[in-house]
Design a protein that fits this description.
CATH class of the largest domain: Alpha Beta
Mean pLDDT: 89
Number of domains: 3
Shape: rod-shaped
Number of strands: 7
Largest sheet: 5 strands, mixed
Order of helices and strands: HHHHHHHEHEEHEEHHEE
Bound molecules: adenosine-5'-diphosphate
Structural class: alpha+beta
């Protein structure tokens, strides 16, 4: 650069000429009014006649001037490079969050870079109007960027860190592995259940024939023993054996019923009949087998229902035998049957026996379920209530139990 004053030091640039101290111009502008000033500003946007290049405004040493210029150029260059890189990032990674804010950053940084480049250029080309306009736009965009950034701050705070994401992925993988393991176990359990059902079905069918033959043979022996005085002492033993065979037959029937139910082959033979009569017959039969209990019936003389008589008899029989079995220390078992307001019939069997713990009640109608602590002293295989509930469900009825541990239970069904 050339020094344009004799008084300047070597390597320095001239102090400003008259234009640099242009009070006359300023006063002209301020007199023009705001609208006039704006009009004048835009019409002379690229006009540089009102100012000297910055080299000639003030006293610049080469070092100072070039330090200013090169710094501005390097800031400007970096400010142009950063948006380019940001653009590449959002172009490649479509999953980057908040892309709109990144676009605002790109605009803001580009504008900042432009102000620095213009600033460097002003040393030769004093485009102060253009510089002001670019700075104004930069100011607006930066305020907008700050506002946008402030708005998404809570969302940014909520973004998970890489560590958190990795931990989450780890947990998810673990959960998936556990789920796969459970699925494998479930499949294995299902296979086992199918095999067990198959076994139960085959075993109960195979057992049925010899038991029937055994039962018939015992009946013949009993008849013969009854006729022969010598064999009379054998009669009670044969009767005992017959009783056990009957129990065995009941178990086999239960097992066959369960396999039928599992296969969806339980067929109902519905007829219209008086349920009170069935109650009475069933109570008489149970009473005959267990004289320790007294069964009381409270039922309307006629309660007509449309259902499978034998299957309902089976349910009642199960309720009654359970009531007597699980109330060894009390005598009373009561049966209630009545028509409800909606026309359905409710039957309940109440005992005052061991009762059922609250937390076990929901499982009581499950297959092979027995209340561990209380039932181990009583014979049974945990199928009666399951079969009863399936029978009632097939009738579209409801079945349930109310029970208090140590006080007794009421089993009921509604048809
Ligand atoms: P089982 O009597 O052969 O075990 P059930 O299916 O009839 O099978 O009954 C399932 C379980 O419900 C029984 O093992 C017993 O624990 C419980 N339970 C059934 N009836 C009663 C009752 N009246 N009082 C107490 N517990 C009962």
């Amino acid at each position: 650069m050339q020094a344009n004053s004799n008084k300047t030091l070597p390597g320095t640039h001239a102090a400003c000429d008259s234009m640099c101290n242009s009070h006359h111009i300023i006063s002209q502008h301020t007199q023009a009014g705001l609208f006039g000033q704006v009009k004048d500003f835009f019409s002379k946007l690229f006009n540089t006649a009102d100012w000297p290049p910055r080299w000639h405004c003030g006293t610049w040493s080469d070092f100072h001037g070039w330090l200013y210029i090169l710094s501005d150029i390097s800031i400007g260059a970096a400010y142009f490079a950063i948006p380019f890189l940001l653009f590449r990032i959002i172009n490649k990674r479509k999953d980057i969050p908040f892309p709109k804010v990144i676009w605002l950053f790109i605009a803001f940084i580009l504008l900042c870079g432009t102000t620095h480049l213009i600033d460097a250029g002003i040393f030769w080309w004093p485009a102060y109007r253009l510089s002001a306009l670019v700075r104004f736009i930069t100011g607006m965009v930066s305020i907008f960027t700050v506002f946008a950034l402030y708005k998404i701050l809570p969302l940014i705070y909520n973004l998970r860190t890489l560590d958190q994401l990795e931990a989450e992925i780890g947990e998810r993988k673990k959960a998936e592995a556990e789920m796969r393991h459970h699925q494998v176990m479930k499949l294995a359990a299902e296979e086992l259940i199918v095999k067990k059902d198959e076994f139960m079905s085959i075993a109960s069918h195979e057992l049925k024939t010899p038991i029937t033959s055994l039962k018939a043979s015992l009946q013949v022996v009993e008849r013969m023993a009854n006729k022969n005085e010598v064999l009379e002492p054998v009669v009670p033993f044969v009767q005992k054996a017959s009783k056990q065979v009957n129990k065995l037959t009941e178990i086999i029937h239960d097992l066959l019923d369960v396999t039928r139910m599992q296969a969806g082959k339980l067929e109902l033979n519905k007829t219209d009949f008086n349920l009170t009569e069935v109650l009475k017959e069933c109570a008489d039969q149970c009473q005959a087998e267990d004289s320790r209990h007294e069964i009381k019936i409270d039922a309307a003389p006629v309660l007509m229902v449309h259902a499978d008589k034998n299957r309902l008899d089976q349910v009642l029989n199960n309720f009654l035998t359970n009531a007597m079995k699980y109330s060894p220390d009390s005598e009373l078992v009561s049966i209630k049957a009545a028509k409800l307001k909606d026309g359905t019939v409710k039957v309940s069997v109440t005992d005052y026996g061991i009762g059922i713990p609250d937390d076990k009640i929901e499982n009581i109608f499950d297959r092979f379920y027995r209340v561990e602590n209380t039932s181990k002293n009583y014979s049974g295989i945990g199928l009666g209530l399951y079969i009863s509930s399936e029978i009632i469900k097939r009738h579209n009825g409801q079945i349930g139990v109310n029970s208090v541990l140590g006080k007794g239970s009421t089993f009921w069904f509604i048809l």
